[in-house]
Design a protein that fits this description.
The model has no long low-confidence stretch (mean pLDDT 94). The protein has 314 residues and is an alpha/beta fold. The chain has helices at residues 20-37, 62-73, 94-102, 118-125, 141-155, 173-184, 213-217, 241-248, 252-255, 278-281, 288-313, and strands at residues 51-56, 77-82, 108-113, 129-135, 162-166, 188-192, 208-210, 222-225, 263-265.
């Protein structure tokens, strides 16, 4: 990796908008920060004097906590806005909320929103950096980056890997960001789901689509198993959770037919006994908790780079 690469983007809105070189540079930078996270004192002064705001319009455990820890490990101040008890409940618009937060002299807004494209709108309306922490069905770029970072760590590369994404592709921002990122870095991606959960024309994104789980598992180096989103529209896709497990769930019996060292990922939260059995989730091929750990280093890299880009623009 060329460490003379200069990052110039003030926002991280999606992997669709990044080049392969930019994605590789984030992963390279995350590698340096991973080393920081293993030290006894897990802190560097890179963002001292900066303020990061977590603005989450949807629930989150992993992403919100991980951004907060990432910011603190870079020595930034962190402000968490609880949307449920904010003036959003009085009807304040996203743009007004963003501009008012910016008036508090902050530097980075990390936003999760149920509307696809909300971070893009916010980024056009404020001069602070905006980082997408998941927007509707659109993108979840830092999740895909941490997935790729974990894959690279486990298998030594991304290029040429066969990665199958299994589950509700239609409603998944994680799937979309992974497809953009993995295909740009040269992985061979297959998506697999019941037909109604595969968006029409997905092949145009450079992936193979199948409704046959055995086909998706055969020869795969890694699988990324998506959460069935019962809070959204996925319940129409199959008659019961048990039937989903039977047809599309990853179980020990299915794993026995896969590559011995297949890497099993899941963005969380897991519906145990639906998309994956507990034996698989907690088994030796699972890297689910390592993904969570790597999220801190990846988000440190993203916060550091968008902040550096703003400094260059000053
Ligand atoms: N993977 C993920 O986005 O999890 P949270 O919803 O808990 O942040």
């Amino acid at each position: 990796m060329n460490n003379k690469f200069v990052w110039t983007k003030k926002d991280l809105l999606g992997l669709e908008y990044l080049s392969a070189a930019e994605i590789k540079f984030i992963l390279y930078t995350a590698g340096s920060f991973k080393e920081v996270t293993t030290r006894q004192i897990k802190k560097v002064p890179a963002l001292r004097g900066k303020t990061v705001v977590n603005l989450f319009y949807e629930p989150s455990t992993r992403t919100r906590a991980s951004f907060e820890l990432a910011a603190k490990r870079l020595s930034a101040d962190v402000l968490n806005i609880a949307v449920e008890s904010s003036s959003v409940k009085k009807g304040e618009t996203l743009i007004d909320t963003g501009r008012n937060i910016e008036a508090l002299k902050i530097d980075i807004i990390v936003v999760r929103h149920n509307c696809s494209g909300a971070p893009n709108i916010l980024a056009r309306s404020v001069s602070s950096s905006v980082v997408n922490a998941g927007d509707g069905w659109h993108e979840h770029p830092t999740q895909a980056l941490l997935d790729m970072f974990t894959l690279q760590e486990k298998l030594g590369k991304i290029e040429g890997l066969r990665v199958s994404i299994i589950g509700d592709i239609a409603h998944s921002r994680v799937a979309r960001s992974n497809i953009w990122g993995l295909t740009k870095l040269g992985a061979k991606v297959t998506v697999c789901a019941p037909g109604i959960l595969i968006p029409e024309g997905i092949e145009k994104m450079g992936v193979k689509a199948t409704t046959d789980l055995n086909e998706a598992l055969e020869g795969a180096d890694a699988i990324n198993v998506l959460r069935m989103q019962f809070e959204r529209d996925t319940a129409v896709a199959f008659p019961s959770k048990l039937e989903y497990l039977k047809n599309y769930g990853i179980t020990t019996e299915r794993l026995e037919k896969c590559k011995k060292n297949i890497v099993i990922m899941h963005p969380g939260p897991i519906n145990r006994g639906v998309e994956m059995s507990s034996e698989v989730a907690d088994g030796k091929n699972s890297v689910i908790l390592e993904q969570v750990t790597n999220g801190i280093a990846v988000r440190m890299a993203v916060l550091y780079l968008v902040s550096a880009a703003k400094e260059i623009r000053r």
